[in-house]
Amino acid sequence: MPVPARFRDVAHDMFDLTGRVAVVTGARRGIGLAIAAALAEAGADVIAASAGQEPAGGDVANSEVERRVRAAGRSFRGHRVDFADRAAVTAFAADLADTPVDILVNNAGTVRRSPAAEHSDADFDHVLAVNLSSQFVLAREIGRRMLERGYGKIVFTASLLSFQGGVTIPGYAAAKSGVAGLTRALANEWAGRGVNVNAIVPGYIRTDNTQALQDDPQRHAAILDRIPAGRWGRPEDIAGAAVFLASSASDYVHGTLLAVDGGWLGR
Question: Residues with catalytic annotation?
Answer without folding.
Answer: 172
